[in-house]
Amino acid sequence: MTHVIAADIGGTNIRLAVVDPQGQIIAESRLQGELSRHAETSQAAAEIHVIKTLAGAIKPFASQYDIHELGMGFPGFFHGRSGLLASSPNLPLLQNFALADRLSDTLDMRVSVENDALCAAIGEQKYGAGQGHANLLHITLGTGIGSGLILNNIPYSGEHGMAMEFGHLCIEHHEGRLCGCGNYGCVEAYASATALINRFTEICQCEIADAKSIFEQARQGHTCAAKITNEAGMYLGMAIAEAVKLLDVTTITVSGGLSGGWDILHPALKHELDDNLIPPLKGKVDVLRSRLDDNAGLLGAATIARDI
Amino acid sequence: MTHVIAADIGGTNIRLAVVDPQGQIIAESRLQGELSRHAETSQAAAEIHVIKTLAGAIKPFASQYDIHELGMGFPGFFHGRSGLLASSPNLPLLQNFALADRLSDTLDMRVSVENDALCAAIGEQKYGAGQGHANLLHITLGTGIGSGLILNNIPYSGEHGMAMEFGHLCIEHHEGRLCGCGNYGCVEAYASATALINRFTEICQCEIADAKSIFEQARQGHTCAAKITNEAGMYLGMAIAEAVKLLDVTTITVSGGLSGGWDILHPALKHELDDNLIPPLKGKVDVLRSRLDDNAGLLGAATIARDI
Question: How far is A99 from chain B (nearest CA, A)?
Fold first, then answer.
């Protein structure tokens, strides 16, 4: 086993790392690269834009370390483990795009690609708080809410690569908030960074820079910030209960920027979760904070680069 | 492949059948046998009661046909495919009870046991509307709501045999109805036979014999019956949407007594389902009525009898 390149493709930047066989990040690079901001109007042009942006970032990094294996987490739905992108909400022009193959040809590297949230689950199970658990539900609380599922040590992606749209579980059926997906009452509309900032602005009628500051305000006794962050935890607990009722998976890990508010989120989440579970599972579900900070996705990408 | 005995153990009766290798029911028997009504106070006594009741029903039937393989669907949570009953909500005294082994010793037959709702899913996939679908979510609408999941042709039972507690998905977070599980707002509190009868009695302030009569009243233009049955369909659609968001399974089959109200349930269900799905799955999910009437469970039991 050798070193591999791991890539985690986000909404506004591209993170790259050299990862050794023990899961240590040896070198890292973070680049601006907004894939969705482009003027192309055809699928062919959009494909070229995506490949150019990704290859432009990855090629110099990989060459510098002379590494020829790449694993990548990408925000989109994939057909199985083929690296064939079925679709991507942020890149609507791309349909059935052979992302891994095209990137492999361009970079002359072996390339494995998986959904970004599923990559984070794979990383957390391999190197983080999910170690030793054959079944794991991993939730990434960031700008949005992502989620990935491991069943019996196998990443689960569903029939269309669209499994674990946890962020769009409905936890408010009446007068729920509008979510980015077009539906109302999704947990993402209450417990993502975007949702916290929007709710703070609306309900507390103050401007705030980021979600981290809302947690800080809550800790300092700001009543409105405390209410919003507590509610985010409660809604997360309700949504996790729904997932557990279907999946009977009892280890849940949480990563992403908002996990910095664990001291506030976890007690609210845990209380609501136990309240909503079926009786024989009450008290049996562990919700653990990630041990990998925001590196779960990168380490999952490194894992799939090796697993081919 | 030979003929096998299939047993479907319900709340108030035991159904037995001889099933041929093509899934045809050759002979059938239905017996009264309420397992949960007994005066025992210890686990040992409860175990003896259950084995006596089951063996007393099955032995003469199996002897009559000289068959030595038994598959059984039983209402409880099992450890994997071992036939070891972890627990059963209706039989709280039983914990970690080697049901299959004990029954096998008593009957001198090869015995396979699985959760009853999962058996129905297995039967529907093997012989019914789920044929040819590697992934299937099957819902049984009866006195309560049961559900079983097949993923990649493998029955999925979760870490504790408690997966697919679909009936306890919460679809009313505010002022939801009390469910038998102790929580509020579960879909079972709106869309099971028990729920329909209770709601009809309460809301329409009329007595009614059974759920079937409520559907008949609805068809004849009874406004209140129409409202309740339509709402049952809507709530089912909402709950199915939640399951699909997590599982990305796009074939759902529905059996059980309430599927007799398909003409009313399905349009309401379908509308609400499509409304609540994430955009790329809207219109892509098929909800099909069982082709096996109330025999899905029996045919699933026959299938597991052969699969060992």
Answer: 19
